[in-house]
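During the practical work, I selected for study one protein's amino acid sequence and its backbone structure tokens, as given directly below:
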Amino acid sequence: MKLKLRGLPRIFSTGIDKASNYSIVLSGASMFIVAVITTYEVILRRLFDSPTTWVFAVSLFIMVWFVLLSAAFGLKAGRQITVDFIIIIFSQRTRAALGILTHLVSLIFIMTIGYYGLRMCMEAYTKGITSMGLLLYPQWLLYLCFPVTMGLYGLQAIRILADEITNLQSGELIKKDGWKDDPRLVLALFVSSMIVGILLMKINKAAGLIVLTLSLMLGGVPVFAALGCSGVAGLFFIFRGFQSLPIVPVIIEETLHNFVLLAIPMFIMGGVILYKCGVGERTYDFASKWLSSLPGGLGVGTVIACGLFSAMVGVSTAVAAAIGLVAIPSLVARGYPKELAYGCVAGGALGVLIPPSAGLIVYGFFTNTSVGTLFAAAFIPGFMIVTLFSLYVIFYCLISRKYEKATVSWKERILSLKGAMPGLLTPFFVLGGIYSGIFTPTEAAAVLVIYSMIVAFLYKKMNWGTFVDILRESATLGSMIMMIIVGAMVLANVIGHLRVARMLAEWLGTSGIPHWQVIGGLFILYIILGMFLDGLAITVLTIPVLYPLMPTLGIDVIVFGVVLMMFVETALLTPPVGLNLFMVKAITGDTLWPIMKGNLPFAALLLLGAIILFLFPEVALWLPKILGV
């Protein structure tokens, strides 16, 4: 009997982990299938004028399942986006105690989705409700994702909670002196801040929501759950209690059943394929050899390589990883200061700004703006930033003379071009298809996946193990982003009903405050937020409120989208939450100070670019006008 009792936890843990592992691979495989059938649709429609009647519906059906099915593995692997710059100062014992509480808070959102999603599923089943559109299927098949996926997430959370409680009771966790090792004090502060936010809703609804959201995020609750729990609390305490909660899975289904957002996981998958098959290294080899004759040519080549790879991948941290692994050792070996090498990699990684950008797709979703137009608007500003970075590297090297000039033959240059050509054609192939009208941005993302697979086979980098790893990694990254959007939309629903944006617009219209001062305040706000929050969190927190104010402030929504991406890129370079900085730290093992020091000039140049765009908006608007998008 004792053996059975000891075996049960192990069997439970192993079973849940296996289920999460299988679910992430299944999720990634389903998105790969979406890419295949969407490309098939493009071919049939464009070459044979014979569009399908089922691809659109099947793709969106898979999209809803894909996002939620990946969540449990993200929890297991610790791949959820959190704001951890405060909690990392605590001892391991305090962090473990706080982690238990944050998991319990996250379960509030998960259980709300699962329970009311189950009710939706049962109602659709008993009433025989079918989908709307050309392809009809029982609607309960779609709604079944809520109880199934959230049930798996809940079981994974219970498994992790049990491990954390065991670790906390073991007494083996590293301690610190003083209040940092007092879990009771930290937990009391965390719970008190949540209670203050809830009570404040009775006095000022919007202020209460802000306090509660920030309390949850700063306490270490994953960003998606912090946003979602705040939205659930707003629905419960501000509106009609439990009667208002059935809207939560409805909001999620309407959010994910969206053809524009479908582009995000597919662009990420295409980028992961290119990253895994060595396109980053070949791009760096090409750029560094062709620019070797310039002063600081290897540094300029690194910046250009980051820009080119950003136009393929769309995720800045992936660009920093792919280029940094090759470029940083080469730069340091050639006599470049390590600070400059760090800046060329972390600063040059502009995947959020240069299209195709997942950040611009999210912004387009929240502002109901054409993604194709945003991509076109970001092209010249992206080129401008790369040029500013390159000029900085050239002048730095001319003044300091701290670099070794490389000698490269034309034969080596031609060979590097030949090796990099399949990858270099990627942005022209994808973006050219969008602007020529051959396919939409979402269809372009699907075509990117298929083209990236072809490139991987050309480079002989694809095998079954690599393919499964790609499915797992792309599904994890895609779900991380989409789950934050899910939580944000639940919170945005509450904010929308409170008419916060409308009240702010009316106040700005009657306050007499010059618009340039308000815009200057927004600049400062984004700089401060960028020091503490992830770029996606900044977007989903601010845009639902700021977007309705843009006409009042005389801000062009297209220009502001590009400017926002520059602030997001700046956020990746500013401590304590600069993800590109930590990526370079992981690559080099160096301390954070020289990495920060090397990236400050690049962050300043990004802010300069944002100011230039506001003063001269035509820099962003010229190309969309020329292309007619």
Q: What stands out?
A: The longest helix spans residues 2-48.
